[in-house]
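BUG: 3D viewer hangs when loading the predicted structure for this chain

Environment: internal workstation, default settings.
Expected: structure renders.
Actual: progress bar stalls at 90%.

Input used:
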Amino acid sequence: MRLMSPSPARGDQWTFLTNHARVLLRIADDPEVRLRDLAAGIGITERAVQIIVADLEAAGYLTRTRVGRRNRYTIDPTVALRHPNEAGHPVGDLLTAFLHREDPPAPERAEADAAARP
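Structure tokens produced before the viewer hung:
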């Protein structure tokens, strides 16, 4: 008789961000990212990323420009989020929250700042 491992608890399967948000954040971080690399980084198929990029482009969140053999993506941070509860917020708020966090000071800088204090 084969013992089956218990299935993960229902609460272990959800995340806060959708794949659409993850794709948009990754493109905002690297506007020239290849969809293949984006898919690998997120853990979804390249075809799923293609569909998501098409969705985001159709909704006006991003535009695609051909540069040689590659695409360059430009995000419009003024487009409102889609859910009625978040419609008062532009997508730029989401991007700012995730991409523009201040980095902690480097150890050398922190030590110099501490030494300069009276």
